[in-house]
Amino acid sequence: MKKIFLIATIAIAAGLSSCTKKQFSDAYSNPQTVNETTVEKQFAGFLTSNLDYVMYKYWNYFVILQNTALPWSQATGILNNPARYVPGAAATTDRWKNFYNFLAQYKEFMNLYSQLDDAGKADKRIYVIAATIYFYDHSEKVVDLHGDIPWSEAGLLSTNEGNYNNSYAKYDDATAIYTKMLDDLKGFADELNSISVPATVTSTIKSQDFINHGDITLWKKYCNSLRLRLLTRVSGVSAFQSRVSSEIASIAGSASTYPVISSNDENMSIKVYSNTTPINNGTGTGANAEFYTGLIGWGNADIPSKPMIDLMINNSDPRLRAMFQPGANASGVYAGLDPSLDGSTQNTLANGGTLSRYNFSTISRNTNIPGMLINAAEVSFLLAEYYLGAGDDAAAKAAYEQGINQSIDYYYWLRSVSDDASQGDLTPTTQGEKDAYIAGTDISWAAAADNAAKLNLIATQKWINYSVLQPIESWTEVRRLKLPAFTFVPDNTNAQTLPPNRWVYPSDESTYNADNYEAVKSKDNFTTKIFWDVK
Amino acid sequence: MTALLSMLLCIGSNFAFGQQKTVTGTVKDASGQGLPGATVTEKGTTNKVLTNDAGSYSIKVKQGSTLEVSYIGFTPQEVVIDERPVISVTLESGSSKSLNEVVVTSLGISKQQRSIGYSSTTIKTDQITKTAPTNFATALYGKAPGLQIAAAPGGSTAGVYVQIRGLNSINFRTNPLIIMDGVPIRDGDFNSGNYWGDGRVRSNGIVDLNPEDIENITVLKGAAAAALYGSEGTNGVLVVTTKKGKSKGFSVDFSANYFQDRVAYLPRFQNVRGAGFPVPWGVFASDENGFGTYNLNGTDYRTTIQGSLNFGPKFDGQPILAWDGVVRPYSAQPDRYKALFQTANNATQNIALNNVTDVSNTRIALTHQHTEGVSLGSRNERITANINSTIRVWKKYVVDIKVNYINDHIHNRPFLIDRLINNFTGMMPVFDNGDWYKNKYQTSLGYKYVTGTNQSATPDENLKIPNYRTDLLDYMWNVNKNQTDEYNNRLITSITNTWQILDNLTLRGRFATDLTFDRTLSKSYSSQPIAFGPSGSYGINTYNYNIFYGDVLLTYNKQITSDLGVTVLGGYTADKETSYTTSLSTRGGLSTENWFDIKASYSPPTFPDNAGAVQTYLTKDAFLGTVNFNFRNYLYVEGTIRRDRTSTMYPTNNSFVYPSVNGGFVLSDAVKLPAIITYAKLRASWGIVGNYPPAYAANVAYNAGNYGTQSSGTNPVLTTTTQSPYGNNFIKPEKKHETEFGIEARFLKSRIRLDASYFTAKVVDQILSLTIPSSSGATGILTNIGTLTNKGFELSIGGTPIQGKNFNWDVTLNFAANKNRVTKLTTGSNELLHGDFDGNAYQIKSLVGRPIGDIYSHPVLKNDKGENIISSDGLYQADPDKMENYGNVQPKGVGGLLNSFYYKGFALDFNIDFKYGGYVIPTGLYWMTSRGITKESLNYMDTEHGGMTYYLDANTGKGIQTTAAQGPNGEVVMHDGMLLDGVTADGQKNTNVVSQAYYYWVTYNWGGPQYSPTTLYNLYIHKNDYVKMREIALTYNLAPKIAGKLAAKNLSISVFGRNLFYIYRSIKDMDAEQLTTGNYWVNNVNNAGSQPATRTWGVMLRASF
Q1: pLDDT, position B157
Q2: Stretch A425-452: mean pLDDT, rounded?
Q3: B182 CB within 8 Å of a chain A CB
Q4: pLDDT band at residue B31, thresholds of 50, 70 and 90?
Q5: How far apart are CA B460 and CA B448, in angstroms?
Q6: Which residues of A are less than 8 Å from B836 in CB distance?
Q7: Cα–Cα distances in Å, from B825 out to A517, B783, B831?
Q8: Mutual angle of helices A125-146 and A199-208, in 10-degree steps
Q9: Residue of chain B whose alpha carbon sits nearest to that of A13
Q10: Is pTM, for the whole model, over 0.95?
């Protein structure tokens, strides 16, 4: 008895009963993760995975844009520091890695979709179309930055069930990617006109699709507007020219079949519904607002460029007081940073407080600002360019002027939804003020000497409209059109003396995807032009 | 609790008194000289006396008891009291280490040292506490061959890197398992090198254990020694045994110490010139002397320029307006870093009560430690309570109870100095002073400093005068105004029941816990008035980590024949670990300035940005068995086997078996050896141990998210995304196969000691988080590829070269060399990249056929003839297309030289440790040279420093050597020229003289060839060899008479120092351990920016009553 008691005591004291298999399997899975998912959840997961590069976030502006697209498009004044024309490794790597995570989520979404039965596939086709339009919008930006990229075979690790040896992705030719995107988008444009979505799918996509809440008409407009952008982008490439003219013609000519974004109400953007959800512009406000801290960089990077401010002052642009604010010591006078001065003069000027800043209330501290994808003004300017090229001067003028009106309205609207009151009330604009501006010397369509001058007008207005809100698109269009024409001070301390034609690939590729990288290695420098860069 | 303590003490309070008699005698050495101060103890009691100056003693003892006679440096002797009234004893000189030592091995099982067939080293309490280290690991430098220690700078709350027998894992844990009194305890990881991720110096669990409570530490090195730990044994084991009551009866031990840490081993700074650059080079706008001007209150003053380069005008002692608005002489500030740090004051008091009776042994100890970091305001108050009790409940039933409670209040863990070392704009100029920052980092209203014309509540105080450094201002703000308080509690307990069922059958059951409850409050002060927008923050974080451990062992032993005995053991162990972290912080600043509560949150906290909760679970168990044979007490053979399971691997694929065998042969007992050999033993062993992946690393799953409702009338957006890095459900543990041979020997009556081992280990199935291109769909994937080997030897030679009545010298040399080699990596590639740094400036990678961790960088660009190609601006260029190996990070050899001298009552210990062969790349130090801050940047600065005389040609901008007073077009002549050896791109001999300022600025700049084509990182890579005076302690043991007057049995006082000076170091601008920032090897190669190293001096008092 004593022995049994002792054995029991010892066993109890040791707290022992042998561990069960279930205990091991329970402890294997991370409680923070899930083992199964659905097409719907992966769709939304895909849409959220590049929010840091769509919304106005600190990292994107501080690390990536303030040293690249913003000064190179002269949306901000360029500070003439050494190595200013080399995109930093952090910039290229971080954006690249985010994009490929985003791409991997898209591929996993497609993988899950492919496992549905035929009925499920048919019911949920709308998810594929929506996801692919969004994916192409962002693929386009990466092609525009780098040229050829791993794409069709990229991001398949999860589809390949972790077989990494089969997942090293080849580079797709940039032209081929554009062709594929244009083909597919054209197909979607037609398909969306006839698609039927079951009610069960509609009720879910309404929540999961936080861009358009399952609104098919809006997806159509996104699709066609994106087509317009891509077609315009390749319009100088001879191999594309015939399809460009016919496809844009059909979009421009048939608003009912191929509707585009035609008013600010239809702007394609990711809206901040509530700051307390993760779809936002960061949680900081005021001087801690993420956009603000990212845009000012080390202190003065939110100062606009002199060319932009001078043009706006000289023509009484109604956007001037909405988009900018005078410097603290400027006595209300607007002034931009002259890119042609030497670095230390610029620093002294910038520290002096006489230069303007992007308006805190409208832009940088406005945490309600929607993450812009493509807006009505941009579409109008794209159409204006098309009409100009097609010889329809009246339509071009109308589209141009409509674009200006839409752009002005957009910036005033931004102010109206702002949560930052630091700049006080904004004097409203009027149609009279807008009309006067449109008739101004440097703005007037009629006053432009020739088509080249008119193209410059369109490019200039598009540039102002993009400002700091769509810097990658802006730098891309500046490279394509070489308009507006900017001058830069050469950086003689560095091999790269002027802004580059493209970004190089991050070392992630040359190191880890070496075999595939070999195919693009010879083109991987700052001088290679993207295929649409033909002017 | 109090009740429990008194109960435990009461158990042993029956003293037994027998018949007393008085014994006298003399204690002599072999030459017949009396030994004064020798200890004569009645065995098993606290009854003891010391011999007088002639070596005589007199003691009252119980009839039939035994006397223990001991004297430092001599082998102790025991004498049974018989009828003799006078008992004189002659002590044999020799080591105090006995030949029958007992070693604590796996699972807390004690074995005779002579019986084990693998290498182990035991380090005893006096060697651990001699210089009052705040954790036991830093007491082990050089004390066990094969054990490598590197303490991260940062004082008592910084971690320690520990490694046994080389690197056994490329990517995962390489620190040994820690076993205290037979049970595993939490160690964990630390990383103090990730400034943006954390910002403060962190520690691992090893630093929590109080050295004063440790009796000894046994280092189990090889696979056979650690075989019973299976999947946790790859990296060896540190077996910690805590103190027990020593001698029968009641006694008290007391110790107290005080010591100071001061910043030491800073880079060699220059004190010759201030901010600026040679004027003709036109880098900064300045007057012709290199100064700027500033108008303060209507007066124009000269100032330095605003910039980080310090190649400016030499100090002239004439007035200049400093950035803080004070006019001072323009002179060097040699103590400029002083005000950024503090002198750390540290004090410890330990008191231990011992009570030993026939049925119980109890020690209760309490330790209070006050420690500080050199980081401003950093301090820790620690209380450690330790109870260790053995109670013989019945004749054959013994219960051991151990309780170890640790309570910390850490105020402001040291703040990383990353921005001061690794960032150009945070390096302090030569004409600058920490005191100025102390005065200016906050405004008179307590808000954060404001520069230029930025919005401020005190615009007059805005900083406008050059050359303030915002990173230093930020540093001072962060150190002073971002405060953290950690309240950490750790309870380590175990209860062990041992029942001797039969004479040869024993059942042991043990249950143990290691419970950690930490709470951290973070308070960041408001940096601006609320009118300008909310600022500051408050957060609370709790961390709970629990280990529940249990084991049951059944041991059976039998003497089969008179020559052969056998012991069989079977057992089961299980271990469950849980971890919970919760955090909550304010969002968008504080609604009221400096109101530190969650209710002060300006906006409602949201998940996951401001709130978090993480749970982690880990389950392990194992069946194990051993069989031991003992043949005639000179041949011992042991075999072990363990089958274990770990929940971090896929449930159907998580069970692995680990066998081992070892044998010990005491040659000196088996055959007759020459008299010179006192003792000789041969060892041989073989075993397999493993290393399992961390929890959840292998798990393939989706991350799930909730993005909230995004439109009225809709549901929350629910998301999933695939994981990166990717897991692997087929992962297996890393497995180490190790064979070891060794010899132990003593010569000349133990005057000379030798212990040597040779081992060869192969670690297969290395778990690599293989980096894959992100374009494949993840940034990495867990894989079981890779094999590496370690081969090495360990040697310990010791002896007593001088042994006399009054003077004794004991010395030990420990040395270990290890050769590590990667023999297989991925199938497709023969290299593994651990990191690409500074835009491809350098890489750390491992290659097949090489040891883990080579540092690669770009060589100087050369032409076909092997001549350096000089760039158009007169400098060497890095070859952008080539990277070469400039050295391996692993040391080739590590060891220590331990010395003890005794002279009468004095003891002097000094311990030297050394390391050679490992390369490092302390980039921050070289960037300081780039900014003209170090002494090196003075080379060639003028004719006296070897500079060339030249002028810059007004047309070409090239430097042209001259002897004239000015150039042909009136150009200014300078004397800081350098002409680099090489040819221009077209093959012409280089004649372009450049300023040394330009050379240092650009050559030691930041960035790979793409960013800085003429920066040469290969110059940053150096061997980190050192020989350091690690510890010195001078102790005086008070004569027993004097001690007795103070009612003490023993009393000693000592002065000691740690980390005192270098006998040699290959890198003169830092402490050899400066780069230690974590317990993964790759963290300890390049980052000098955690905390400054320190030097320690202190005093200690020890007494027994």
Answers
A1: 92
A2: 95
A3: no
A4: low
A5: 14
A6: 507, 511
A7: 21, 10, 7
A8: 40
A9: B511
A10: no
